[in-house]
Amino acid sequence: FHSGEREEKCIIEDVPTDTLVIGNYKVQRWDIHKQEFLESAPGLGMFVTVTTPSAEVLLSKLYGPQGTFSFTSHLSGEHIICLQSNSTRFVAFAGSKLRIHLDIRVGEHFLDESVVQAKDKVNEVNFKLEHLIEQVHHISKEQNYEREREEKFRKTSEETNSNILWWAIVQTLILISIGIWQIKSLRDFFISKKLV
Predict the structure, then answer these.
(1) Mind listing the pLDDT tens digit for each residue in 101-134?
(2) Alpha carbon 44 to chain centroid, angstroms
(3) CATH top-level class for 2-111?
(4) What InterPro entries would the database entry show (predicted)?
(5) What pLDDT, on the 0 to 100 scale, is given for residue 92?
(6) What residues does each domain of the chain span?
(7) Torsion sign, CA atoms 33, 38, 42, 43
(8) pTM score, two decimals?
């Protein structure tokens, strides 16, 4: 995505409880003379802030023009990941465009290839099997989280439907009572004017 030099951009990521989130980014600065984005942005860093659903700051750190950040969620819900350059230019002169490449991996566990190559084939299979078991646990945890969200949504929908039904009954009773009152008032009016 593109961003201004002093502009903060935020991304919302829905993360289950106790889940590792790894983010890789790279910043490129627009060169006015070459009319293209430079491959790197020397001297420019990114300030990364991660906020939990309860508005608690989980991560707040300054990184270089390219880097990796990671955090583990303690609460399930929408985590807000914000990126902002650490440009020291005044706002009036900070008109340069930035291109930010961002890759966020939720629940990712990387295999260390050097460790795998150093061990024999049995250990390699065992290590990959442990990795697969860990991924299955993560998928199960994510399914449970989605099940909880679906259950909460269903309860909210049922409460809303119930409220709508009662509101319709109340409206009907009000309309009937107003109709009866109007008929009675008209009848009394006609009787008082001796038209009936």
Answers:
(1) 888 888 765 555 555 455 566 777 788 888 899 8
(2) 27
(3) mainly beta
(4) Emp24-like, GOLD_dom
(5) 41
(6) 2-111, 126-157
(7) positive
(8) 0.56
- Candidates 77, 104, 15, 9; CA nearest to 47 is 9
DSSP state of 24: E
134 token code pair: 């860990």
What is the rounded CA–CA span in Å between residue 30 and residue 179?
71
Over its C-alpha atoms, the chain yields an Rg (Å, rounded) of: 31
Tokens encoding 60: 């707040």
Q: Are 132 and 31 in contact (CB under 8 A)?
A: no
Q: How many CB atoms are closer than 10 A to CB 87?
A: 20
Residue 8 phi, psi (nearest 5): -100, 130
DSSP string for 101-120: EEEEEES-----HHHHHHS-
* Separation CA 82–CA 80 (nearest Å): 6
Beta-sheet strands, E only, within 73-147: 77-85, 97-106
| Strand 20-31 with 97-106, pairing | antiparallel
Residue-wise pLDDT tens digits, 45-63 = 888 999 998 888 888 888 8
